[in-house]
Every structure is written in structure tokens, then in C-alpha cells.
Amino acid sequence: MFLLEQNEKNHDTAEKKYNIDYENYPLRIIILGPQGSGKGTQAELIKEHYTLLHIDMGSELRKIENQNNELAKKIKEIIDKGDLVPDEITLKIFEKKLQELKSSEKKYKGFISDGFPRNEKQLNLLNKTLGDIFNIALYIKISDEEAIKRISKRRICYCNDKEIILSIDDVEKIKDCEKNNCKIIHREDDKEEAIKHRLELYHKETELLLRDFYDKNILIEINGEQPIEKVFEEIREKIKEKLEAKRNE
Ligand code: AMP
């Protein structure tokens, strides 16, 4: 039964609203960590390994940003400065993605949310609208120095509406991306001023969520300053331990 019982009372809202039976979705993960901690990379590995729906708020917003309308313009302005997009927009995107759990042909075992909720206000809003839906909170920990070092080297390769995260050191991958006629960009909000502002917002707002998830006994801390495969290994081990501990409670 995993962590189901603990949150059962609060599930009513999301389960009723979308007719989603959480018993069929035993992994409902939120992944947290500062910009550059490797959340996106790990979320991709996790979603494949456990067959999860990946809800990547930043990427969903950038899809809207690339459209040619007033909303796109408004979102682009906010994102380029490193500020937060209004809650009603992000909540709507999250709810829409969540519906894919049932509508997709893929047999998902749950979902992993990257980038939402990002502060207490969004968490409260989510709880009020959909109930207490997460049963694992993965926190990828890295220092600010490492975050800044990584983000300043980060580039995005856009291929068929998909984002592939690269570093300027990945010379071969950059060549591949160019060969496939995909677009390589240096995100405006990955430039120095915006990074500093985003990290500030992270420490001021997102980090507060760690306490909530710790109190619910769903927090798992991961050392993000290791090679990608090692981080992923630690994640798999700790998820297994957490689920076993909960089952034996
Ligand atoms: P990310 O790709 O997660 O770094 O997100 C890029 C940008 O998208 C952020 O700096 C925000 O401007 C916006 N964004 C992503 N998630 C949220 C959220 N939950 N609430 C508000 N804005 C968000």
C-alpha cells in the first residue's frame, strides 16, 4: 500500500475531480533542488525507470512562451527576468497534465513533478484544489557555487518540441544537435543576473517546502554533487528504502 494510507483522507479532491484512483499510481513524486542541481536530467531517468508521467512546469511554460499571442508575451517577460508566473496559470497547466495519467495509452505508475509547487502559496493552493497528492519528495542538494558553475555552461537543444539539456563541454552532443537541424539556445534566464535572482527566490521560497515534506515524512535527501549515474543510483536506493519503511509501519 506504500504511502497511501498516510495521505488517504486528503485524496478525495483529486481522486474525485479526475476520477484518478491513487491505488493505481503508487509513485507520486515531487523533485526539488536549486537550479542546476540536475533535477531535469534525473526526472527523465526516473520517469523511464518507473514509468511515470513527467510534469515539467518550466518546459510547459516555455512551450506556451513560443506561441505567438498575448499570453506568450506576458509569460516570456516574466521568465526572462527569472520571476514567477502567476499561480492560476501554473495550477491550470498542472491539472491539465495530471489528466494524462488516465487518458494516455501508457500505463503510468504515477507522476514526477518538477517545478511545481515552487512555494508555500502554490503548495497550499494545490492542497486546496487537488488534495495532498505527493508521497515522495526528492531533494537534490548542491551548493550555490556548483549551481552557478553548471547553469552558466547550460545550453538547451530544441528538437521536435523536446528540450535536451546540454553543457557547453558536451562538444559531441552539441555537434549532433546541430547536425539534426535542432536549435541550440542559451536561455535568457540562465544568464548571470537572472540566475542569481532565481537562486535567491529558490532559497527564499522553494526551500521552505522542504520542512513541509519533512514533517509529512516523505522527504528524501540526495547528494547532487556526484556523477549523473551515481545520483540516480542513490535515488533508486532511497526510494526503495522509503517505500519499504512505509510498508512496514
Ligand atoms: P525551470 O525550467 O524550472 O527553471 O523554470 C523556468 C522558469 O519558469 C522559472 O524561472 C519561472 O519563471 C517559471 N516557472 C517554472 N515553474 C514555475 C512555478 N511553479 N510557478 C511560477 N513560475 C514557474
How would you describe the overall organization of this protein?
The protein has helices at residues 4-7, 12-18, 39-50, 57-65, 70-81, 87-98, 100-103, 120-130, 144-153, 171-179, 192-206, 208-215, 228-247; strands at 27-32, 53-56, 110-114, 136-141, 154-159, 162-167, 183-185, 219-223. By secondary structure, the protein is α/β, with parallel strands linked by helices. The protein has one domain: 3-Layer(aba) Sandwich (Rossmann fold). The radius of gyration is 18 Å and the shape is globular. The chain starts with a helix and ends with a helix. The relative contact order is 0.18. Residues 35, 57-58, 61, 78-79, 82-85, 90, 115-116, 118, 122, 189, 198 line the site of adenosine monophosphate.
The CATH class is identified as: Alpha Beta
* Known CATH architecture: 3-Layer(aba) Sandwich
Percent helix: 40-55%
Count of discrete structural domains: 1
Oligomer: single chain
List unreliable stretches of 5+ residues: 1-9
CATH fold field value = Rossmann fold
Largest sheet, described in full? 5 strands, parallel
Kindly provide the radius of gyration, computed on alpha-carbon positions and rounded to a whole number of angstroms. Answer: 18 Å
Class inferred from helices and paired strands: alpha/beta
Helix count, DSSP H or I runs of 4 or more residues? 13
Proportion of strand residues: 15-25%
- Coarse morphology: globular
Helix-strand topology string: HHEHEHHHHEHEHEEHEHHEH
Bound molecules: adenosine monophosphate
Strand order, sheet with most strands: 2-3-1-4-8
